[in-house]
Amino acid sequence: MKITPSARVLSMLGEIDFDEWQCVAELVDNPFDDFLDILRSGTEWPGGFTVSVTLPSSPKGVLEVRDTGRGMSYDRLARAVRAGWSGNDMHDKLGLFGMGFNISTARLGRRTRVLTTRAGDTEWIGVEIDLDQIKDDFEAKDITEPKSDPSQHGTRIIVDRLHRTRAEWLRRNGASLRNTLGSVYSWILTEHPFDLYVGGTRVKPVRHCRWGDDRYVLYNGKERIPAYIEIDEKLQDGTACRDCGEWQIGSGEVCSVCGSGNLTVRERRIHGWLGVQRYLDKTEYGIDFLRNGRKILRWDKQLFTWNNPEGREGDEEVPEYPVELAHQGGRLIGEIHLDHVPVTYQKDAFEYGDRSWLAAVELLRGVAPLQPKRAPGYPENDSPLALLFKGFRRNDAGLRYLVPGDGHKPIHKDTREWGRKFQAGAPEFQTDEHWWQAVLRHEEIKKRGKEAKTAASVPAQPDEKAVEEALGFPTGMPTSGMTRPASRSITLATPAPAASVSLKEKKETRSERLARYESAATPHAYLSRPFGHPELGHVKVRTLLLKPGEPLLDDHGLPVPVLLDQRSGNEVTALVDPEHSAYRRFGADYADLLLVELAAVLKVRARSDWSPSQLVAAIRAESLQDSALDGTTVGAEARDLLAEIREHVAEALDRSGGYTTAYGHLTHEEKIATEEEMIAAGRVGLVGRLGQDSSFVHHMPALALVRLVQALPEQFMDGAVFRGPYAKVSSPSGKALSLARVTGCLADVATLGTFAAGATAQHLRRARLSIALLRDELVGEG
């Protein structure tokens, strides 16, 4: 098969630089284009629309991209792999340029095999492009593979002899790659029934965490500015060249750029939305610009800069947002579709000099500055972005700017954490209600504070008892009928102590005692967080663990397990004595007793009539959701830790070259289970390499992983995967004990990660403790 490159792109091939994720995206674009064509045709597609990306498991591994599309004929395949050829309309497709396939595969590895088949074909047909073998005649080797099921259809791209640095990046950054692709294709994955898998894990669309359609603020107390503005501007239709993509000026019959007569009238439309994010971030704000559903620009901030036509040299570009506390970041966001605007070859920018881009910028942000005072000669900017800027430029807590707070200040750290829970799919954080309630609580706390200050400013009745003590009258005696002399006639005399009586030592104040406790304490990171409930309000707690030495005493000198020190505002310091018998003898959890103390505080503040058990249960459910003792939560924790351990084990085997020996320790049943798991994860191409690299580790049964560590402790102990000593331990019993510390916990985690559904509460507690202990043993943790 000849793959002679087109002369029109030879000059630019060496100039295009693709990151690893861009190389993968180029290979995903084409099947998505095929899927979109199928949807437009109305053809039923019972097999579903799936693209699976298999990542290399070692530096010598392979990258494979396979899809369930229609497949190609031999002639279509020959054109598709020819550099510079494009069968795509320049305005309808993601895969804009045929050379994207060649650039991305060449940057990944030295050899690429493409196999394709259509429903009803008797075999897979393909081509092998070996950059080390192709001569000046540009002849590539034709290949075929047998087909087990005639109804199979789709295309596979297998790249091997990978460049080491890119193979290493792909092997180590599966989660990062999924997140990037989830952002780039978020609109497509949300709007269409397409599935994208990377490394056997489904890519989830990274959605914007914005305020709801009905939220707004009042500017100057009267102008209503919404937090979400829909954009849909239909421009005049234009004539475009289907071959080179250029929009035409005038009404000629041939393209003014390439001379082609393949012209067509096309729609030009700017649509999408601008809005406000529910949290402030230093980097994750700005506008996403899309072309045909794929994001070309993400978190783009160039519309926040005004290009001053009258600026002096070096002052032409004026940053306008964020301006208030700019170091905190911003929250204005958007998603704008510009299908008619040309993009660069790398698909990471638009052609900024093109009049279509300039028209879009003018529509979205106007020609005047966002801040009117910057250029008094300009008329008021009434663009959508200027409206949002006017309403949400500041980040003060409360209803005025729609920012959650604690009654005194914004709680940006908390809202960012809620944003992460939104992305993780936590149900209670999917709508903006959690943020909205925090705004309302801030306003209520602030209102109560003002009322308290007002009450405190009214003179109260004097404390007669305190006055009497200050004047020297004996306390506790009846005062009716007594005539007190005027204060000026009273002489206050203190008798000198007898010589035999020593002065008492100065008593330690409460503040001094608490400061002493804090100076000998260490933070408890997990329990240092906001605690509360929407019905009760929240407090920000800093939890400290006392070091052994002396008991934690309350104001009456009695030992307590927890002592609260309420600071200004909503801040509380919680001191915990780990040596208290409640923990040492009876196994109470720090969180349990801390919640009891906090419940009492919040009950008084909120004037709640809830019972103590209601209070504790509600605060725990709201503030410690990740401590829920259920099979789903603990099972997910176990599987996450197992995935991390598998990564470490695979790396250890790669370093030592011991993967063949390790694979040999699997039983026949475990090897079959490993093969089946690989096939289910779409990694069919690696099944034939079992035992030749460490890829099997990621798919072997979890309990087999326990046996592997038991069988080959020299490979995984002594800091290779686990911290525990082994090789240098002299006694057999000592070796066994050190190994058992790891494998005992690993067995608990593997069991629960596999069979979490039927676990009892006791099993879940044991597994959670084993997870914590095993994390301490794992290299790189703790």
Helix amount: 25-40%
Beta-strand content = 15-25%
Q: So what's the overall shape?
A: flat
Specify the biggest β-sheet.
Answer: 8 strands, mixed
**Separation of termini?**
56 Å
**Mean pLDDT, nearest integer?**
83
**Rg calc:** 34 Å
**Strand runs, count:** 22
Number of helices: 23
Low-confidence stretches: 6-14, 475-503
Strands of the widest sheet, in order across it, are: 5-4-3-6-2-1-7-8
Structural class: alpha+beta
SSE arrangement:
Elements: H1 7-13, H2 20-41, E1 49-54, E2 63-67, H3 74-80, H4 99-108, E3 109-117, E4 123-130, E5 141-146, E6 154-162, H5 164-172, H6 174-184, H7 186-191, E7 194-198, E8 201-202, E9 216-219, E10 223-226, E11 228-241, E12 263-281, E13 286-291, E14 294-300, E15 305-307, E16 317-319, E17 330-337, H8 355-365, H9 384-392, H10 412-424, H11 433-456, H12 464-471, H13 510-519, E18 521-523, E19 530-533, E20 537-546, E21 562-566, E22 571-576, H14 581-584, H15 590-606, H16 612-623, H17 631-656, H18 659-664, H19 668-680, H20 702-711, H21 713-716, H22 732-754, H23 761-777
Parallel strand pairs: 1-7, 13-17, 20-22
Antiparallel strand pairs: 1-2, 2-6, 3-4, 3-6, 4-5, 7-8, 9-10, 11-12, 12-17, 13-14, 15-16, 18-20, 19-20, 21-22
